[in-house]
Amino acid sequence: MNLNATLIAQFVVFFILAGFTMKFVWPPLIKALDERAKKIADGLAAADRGKADLAAAEKRIQGELASARDEGQKRIGEAEKRAQLIIEEAKKTAAEEAARIVANARADAQQQVNQAREELRGQVATLAVKGAEQILKREVNAAAHADLLNQLKTEL
Q1: What is the CB-side half-sphere exposure of residue 73 using CA atoms within 13 A?
Q2: How many domains does the chain have?
Q3: Residue 148's CB: how many other CB atoms inside 10 A?
Q4: Fewest beta carbons less than 10 Å away: which of 19, 40, 102, 137?
Q5: Tens-digit pLDDT profile for residues 111-151
Q6: By the 8 A CB rule, do 140 and 133 touch?
Q7: What gap in Å lies between CA 95 and CA 62, rounded to an integer?
Q8: Is 51 a domain residue?
Q9: Rounded to 5, what percent of the chain is helix, strand, coil?
Q10: Is 148 domain-assigned?
Q11: Is 146 part of any domain?
């Protein structure tokens, strides 16, 4: 066999194989590679969108946490103000109650003082009558001298 003919035959077979490969094998491979590249690009774009969404969600969460923290502080402040108002109201009520109790106690004390004075007046009048009996050495009739005894009580 001739080397040139073999070489030419190999060239012909090579070009036929290359043409067949370019016509029937290469397009599906290119298509598969393009689809794979598209999937990769879509995945990377989705990852970028996910990162952006994550960053936005983190910002939103930080904002909501700050808002919740501020609202909590505001509620604590309001609760403290309300507690102070309740304490002041309780103090005021306690002061009013104490004043009322003191007033009642003074009124009771005054009533007892008046009652004791009346009893003392009665006892002094009785002693005065007994003293007058002793001085006069005779019995004094309390019923007959009731006006005189009442006048004596009022003077005492």
Answers
A1: 6
A2: 1
A3: 14
A4: 137
A5: 999 999 888 878 877 777 777 776 665 555 666 566 666 77
A6: yes
A7: 49
A8: yes
A9: 90, 0, 10
A10: no
A11: no
